[in-house]
Design a protein that fits this description.
The chain is α+β, with helices and mostly antiparallel strands and 159 residues long. Helices cover 50% and strands 24% of the residues. A hairpin with a 5-residue loop joins β6 and β7. The longest helix has 28 residues, at 48-75. The relative contact order is 0.17.
């Protein structure tokens, strides 16, 4: 099976949001921001500092990630080119321009669904992103290929 993908700012942003808000620091930061907002609205006499910090903490990360995704797409030449993947029983062959990398299935850390994409992680922070629109009618076959070649406890894909 072969798939060609293109990573857009929106796809990268959704991946970054998921990656951040499922990590300890993302969850902790959001909880602190929400607690500051709740504290302010329960007792406005504590000052606007609580309100401002709550808004800054909960609102800054998503906005900053949008701009970071934009910068990464513009600055990284590999992001502007399409990725071509060939899936087989041996693994995944990744091609981009002149570059080629063979990834064996046992090198895959996990596979998961991330807002509009399916992601195959090689490490907790290195991943290949497959936007659903690029998978098209191959999506079910793609999920089956992953599920067949990776242990079930490493596959967290919602169809």
């Amino acid at each position: 099976m072969e798939i060609t993908t293109k990573i857009t700012r929106k796809v990268l942003y959704n991946y970054m949001l998921h990656h951040t808000y499922t990590s300890f620091s993302g969850i902790f930061g959001t909880a602190v921001g929400v607690l500051l907002l709740v504290a302010y609205f329960r007792d406005p006499s504590i000052g606007l500092l609580y309100l401002g910090m709550g808004i800054l903490i909960t609102g800054f990360m998503p906005v900053e990630m949008w701009f970071r995704a934009d910068r990464q797409i513009k600055k990284n030449p590999t992001m502007s080119e399409s990725f071509h993947y060939v899936f087989s029983d041996q693994g995944i062959l990744v091609r981009q321009g002149e570059l080629e990398e063979q990834i064996e299935w046992d090198m895959c850390f996990k596979a998961a669904t991330v807002a509009g994409s399916i992601v195959i992680y090689l490490t907790p922070v290195r991943a290949y992103i497959f936007p659903r629109q690029d998978l098209g009618d191959k999506r079910d076959l793609f999920v089956e290929m992953i599920s067949t070649h990776m242990p079930s406890n490493k596959v967290k894909i919602r169809v």
